[in-house]
Write a structure and sequence with these properties.
globular; mainly beta; single chain; 7-stranded mixed β-sheet; 11 strands; 1 helix; 49% strand; 4-stranded antiparallel β-sheet
Length: 120
């Protein structure tokens, strides 16, 4: 398993933007983001593979963009037009599976999470 460290969370007003980062100790085929609010299951947000494929949840399409850096094992999530319902703890996930299989909240390696709060 790889070690993952997220950063970039914070408090922002609705309509604003945040950029989350995830640094991994090693490389896996895919990396992605999930989010979770208390009392609910962890929810898939976005994923990419080093083969160049991406996958997004319908709720974030057109607002969020997942990308990777030229430096090995780094990933970002650019979040624009944020809404109060985007408020959650955001988790980074890494796994040796394709982007479709990344959408399940099991398996792989996980970071500790970073809080995103969007005020109305």
């Amino acid at each position: 398993q790889v070690q993952l460290v997220e950063s970039g969370g914070g408090l922002v007003q609705a309509g604003g933007s945040l950029r989350l980062s995830c640094a991994a100790s090693g490389r896996t085929f895919s990396m992605g983001w999930f989010r979770q609010v208390p009392g609910k299951e962890r929810e898939f947000v976005a994923a990419f593979s080093w083969a160049g494929t991406t996958e997004y949840a319908d709720s974030v399409k057109g607002r969020f963009t997942i990308s990777s850096g030229n430096a090995a094992n780094t990933m970002w999530l650019q979040m624009n037009s944020l809404k109060p319902e985007d408020t959650a703890v955001y988790y980074c996930k890494a796994d040796d599976v394709g982007v479709v299989d990344m959408a399940t909240p099991t398996g792989g390696s996980w970071g500790q999470g970073t809080q995103v709060t969007v005020s109305s």
